[in-house]
## 1
Amino acid sequence: MEETGDDAETAIMDAKYGFINGALTEAGFTTGTKADTYRMTHLIDNVLSNRFVGFPIFFFILFIMFQTTFALGQYPMDWIESCVEWVGEWVGQTLPPGPLHSMLTDGVIGGVGAVIVFLPQILILYFFISLMEDSGYMSRAAFIMDRLMHKMGLHGKSFIPLVMGFGCNVPAVMATRTIESRRSRIITMLILPFMSCSARLPVYIMITGTFFAATWRPWVMLSLYTVGIMLSVVVSKVLSAFVIRGEDTPFVMELPPYRWPTAKAIGRHTWEKGKEYLKKMGGIILVASIIVWALGYFPHNDALTEQEQQEQSLIGRMGKTIEPLCSPQGFNWKLDVSLIAGIGAKEIVASTIGVLYNGEVSSDDLTPLTAYCYLLFILIYFPCIATIAAIRHETGSWRWAAFAAYYTTLLAWVVSAAVNQIGQLFI
């Protein structure tokens, strides 16, 4: 509004709180003489929730989180990687050559090992996320983002599922039930895939740690999260303007006081997430690794070199067939196949790369530009099957689920191709 300099919603909420305060004053309500237990919370909020510095502080915290993840996580990651290599060598020397030897060394150890080495970095990231949740800062992040939510044409409550999407998109889709507006609920579901779930982290860490210098790694990681947020803003604006129109109700949120998180609580939350990660290693990742190995092993011909064998295998023929589709992005057939495998679950992308590259993907295989375009594709394209099923269940229609699957994949193709083609002009 021109008189106050705020939007209509803010003015309405201010008027409501003013009316409530006046009614309490007339009724003789007093706050008591005890010291303000929220004084420190108010002082901290004057900085962290400030409309001008809140955003920079939020992204600075994310940068510190990624920097610490790479710096501290590298040491235990190297130890685990050494153990995986030792186990692979021991199995290779113990078993005679043959399908079982190849399945264990290239399939099981190469696939599962390529993912499990990132467990320390995953735990560090979960530690930071638990710290922000238990301290009360995550609620402040929702408060900071509320204004942006409305500029996106969404309800303020949409931010809670979007934050949950950084953990897993499936429960985040289910969390949209708290949004009263069906319009905002559907739009929130459709942009949730842009939130980088934890399943993408092994791929991010693998590609970023291999193809980018140490000083650039946290910036690359931060850029992926930023691109995801920016895409969600643009897409939600488009959807709210042209696809699902309507108005939303105001959003009022009570911010809890800041608390010192207990080591026991943070440790429990971190370990629970880590345990889920390990369960996937022995379940879906193991099965997917063996399937990818089998497709790359048969039909087998000992007279061929390893490279020729891969190209003549079932998975090689599949990859060579679809390779022209992603030539504008500069992807090779191995990357194309890993993208298809990622439709089931994004962790499978890392295990597929581990199998196809025999756990030795190096900077000689891709340029940093191609690697970044690949990360963009992973960020944007088809969410996992479980997320699509959740969207179908929550909307009650396959139409919205199919739309989410198709438009994200098309957008991923366009964005990654554009970045690669434009980037080539400056190399």
Note: DSSP finds 20 helices and no strands in the chain.
## 2
Amino acid sequence: MYQQIINDLKKYSDSEKARILSRFFKTGKGEYGEGDIFLGVTVPQQRLVAKKFKDADLKTIEELLHSKIHEHRLTALLIIIYQIKKANEVKKKNFFNFYLKNTNYINNWDLVDLSCRDIIGEYLLDKDRKILYQLACSKNLWERRIAIISTFAFIRKSKLQDTLRVSKILLNDKHDLIHKAVGWALRELGKKDEKALENFLNKYYKKIPRTMLRYAIEKFSEEKRKKYLTKS
């Protein structure tokens, strides 16, 4: 099945799109996606392939995830998400552990953003969440992003405290991709409870990076946005 998936993805490959994606996902020397290889396959096309092979076994998924090719890795994660929707608790736990064991291969922001909410966040809804705080303190950029993006599963259920706590840990993060992710999470939290977001901003506005703040206040009124941008 592994080779069939590879062949199907190859049919969609587009060299011009691959060139654009390589630049967009910063694959140059010293950039965050250094060395990543793209085929030029769109996410909708990858979803089609993942759905077609949604019953792939874990060995096949692991082979895909360990590939040097970006679209192979994302397709592996999309297959897991298809399987999780109908999985029992044991299988969900197995995928949860598999994901955490393989974070070195979940190494760009789209791979994180399209997978961790469903694989990590959803699993932790009724469980201890200390793993998120460990990830938030990781030296690995992508593990820190997993920590905050996974909390989107909680935000959907109006469980907001973990998002605020993880955001606090990440306030001093140096990477722009974390600033954007935390700001995005805070913005979504604000849709559920604007007062909770304002309380957080009022307490930490001196520490909040500008990019993070801009994302967080995006849904505020113009007057309120100006107030926070002036304060910071």
Note: The radius of gyration is 19 Å.
## 3
Amino acid sequence: MSVAPGRRTVSEAETQRANRGDWDRIADEYQAEHGEFLRDVGFVWSPEGLDEQDARLLGDVSGRRVLEIGCGAGQCGRWLVSRGAEAFGLDLSQRQLQHSRRIDQDTGVTLPAVCATATRIPAADDSFDIACSAYGALPFVLDAGLVLREVARVLRPGGRFVFSVPHPIRWTLPDDPSADGLRVTRPYFDRTPYVEQDEEGTVTYVEHHRTLGDWVRCVEGAGFALFDLIEPEWPPGHDRTWGAWSRQRGTLVPGTAIFCCTLRGALPAGPGHQ
């Protein structure tokens, strides 16, 4: 049972242990609530519903080796497989990966995946052409720069990495999709992690905050060049509420930031570059 959440410093070990346990606990509920929206074989970048089939942020994936970081139940990776990619998934939660195996069997589209942390990717250097992460791993690690350096290590020269995270501006707002959530209650520049814990003081959930500038410095510091930063607008006709993401908020403030990067030396012309 969680007590009132707060803000305090936590270690990477506490962060990993808490978030692995949290995702194992909520995986069934998460898939039941969001599975239809995500689709068993589908690539949705964000609660706004931005679809890779339309956005083409990864370019042509056919014949490419692709790593999905924080793959959850493998919906995005399975879509990549269906488009001719040699895709692999990685996730911290064993229960999420059990759901991935179930969906593999249901659909006949299989995503090979391992249970591991994004801060220590179990893959050889220069072994992938593309990496991607849709709300996976990066908000839930203490050292995002370490994850980006690991991704750089496993990508081949000129490789592309695209990842989506909650937009940093959301840190300033209450976790409330209604009109009452449209007020600034926290400093944008306060990077103290959001922490939930049980009655014994054991950390049960952690989310880390970085400003847009922090993210850009992480990207550049890992050897990537940022070629686009996308803040999806709330689309007409999309009325689905997901946590604090809603039409009421989404038409006024951004909810998602998508960073499109390549390893330096092969900068593409822009989104959808083939």
Note: Residues 131 and 151 are 7 Å apart (CA to CA).
